[in-house]
Amino acid sequence: MAERPKVLAYYFPDWHADPRNAKWFGQDWDEWKLLEAAKPRFDGHRQPRIPLDGRFDEATPASAEHQIRIAKEYGVDGFLVDYYWYDDGPYLQGALDDGLLAARNSDDIKFALMWANHELVNIFPHDDPADDSPQRLKNGAIDRAAFEKLARHVIDTYFARPNYLTIDGRPWLTIYELGNLVVGLGGVEETADALRWFDEQTRQAGFEGLHLDAVVWGIGVLPVAITLDNPSELVRKLGFRSATSYVWVHHADLGRFEFPRADVGPLRAAAFAEYGRYAAELDVPFYPNVTVGWDASPRTAQDREFVRGRYPWTTTFDPSPEEFREGLLMAKSFLERHGQPHPIITVNAWNEWTEGSALLPDNHNGYGFLEMIRAVFGDR
Predict the structure, then answer these.
(1) pTM of the predicted model, to two decimals?
(2) What are the residue ranges of helices labelled H in the chain?
(3) Each residue of 232-278: pLDDT tens digit?
C-alpha cells in the first residue's frame, strides 16, 4: 500500500488586526471587512462566502485551538503559513505567534513557513480593472542584511518548535517568488551564497540543514509577479530540495476562460499538465497542489461593474466538494506514478476566503471540502 501523503494547507493570516494594516487602511482593518462587504457580481454568484463559524480573531489561542481540532479531525496534517518579512521585519505574524503557536493543542498539527516574498500592493480593494500598477505598500525583494535577520528569526523562533515540519531532519521552508528572491539578493550567485549561509546557520542550530521548497509557476497572478522562463534551472542552481505549486491559476491563462465564471475541469487539467512537465524537468521532487476554488472578487471595488481585467478582476471558479475530490484523486495518482519520497500534497487553501479558496466550512458547502480530504486519504 502506498504511503499516505501529508496534506498541507496554505494558511493565509490576514484575519486579525495588524499595526501595518491599521496604518495603511484604518484602525482594526482586516480582510473580514472585504469579505463581509462582498456582493454577488453576476447571476448565480455565491457572495459573500460566510464561514460557518462567522467572523473570528485568528490571533487568539481559542480560535486557533478550534481550527487545529478541525484540521486534525478531517485529515489535514499541517499548515504552510504564509509568512511576510520585509526590509523592516515581519507582517501579519499575529495569527501564527499569538494564535496557532499559543494554542493549547498546537502540537496536534505540523506547521511550516511559506515565505510570501512578493510585492505587497494595495488591492484592498482594487478599484480599476485596467490598472496593472497599483500602489506598492512594501517591496518583496529584500537585501542580504534583511534576509539574514529573517533567517535568524526563523531559526530561533520557529525551527526549534517540536511541531515544525522537517524532512530528514531538515526544517521545511517554502519560498513563493524565486524571481523576487534573486532581485533582492543581487543575482543568482549571490542568492545561492545567501541560501548556503542559511543552510549552515540551520546546521549550527542542530539540524541536518535546511529543506528549501520552491513555488514554481508558468503564469504570475499578482499584478507585479515575476515569471521565470526556466524555473527548473534556477531551482537546481539555488539548491532547493523540492518544488510545489501555490494555486491552479498559476498554470493557466485566465484570459482564455469564459468570464465571469468557468468550469474548474479545464483549469485543473492545465495545472496537472504543467505538474507533469515539472516532474520531468526538475532534479528534485515536485509535490502537486489541489485548489479548492478561485474567486478574488471580494478584493475588487464593489461599487464598480465586475468586468474582466487584471487581478483581482478575473474569472471565478466555484467547484463543488465532489469536483474538489477529483483534484485530490489526481494528486494522489500523481504521487503514486512519480514515486516521490516523503509524499506531500499542498492545498490552496485553509482560509483564503477573499480569493474564494477555503477548506474551512462555510454557509454553502458546510464541511464538504474537508470531508473529501478524509474520504480520499483517511484519518491521519
Answers:
(1) 0.97
(2) 19-25, 32-37, 61-73, 94, 144-154, 178-185, 188-204, 231-237, 264-281, 321-338, 368-377
(3) 899 999 999 999 999 999 999 999 999 999 999 999 999 999 999 99
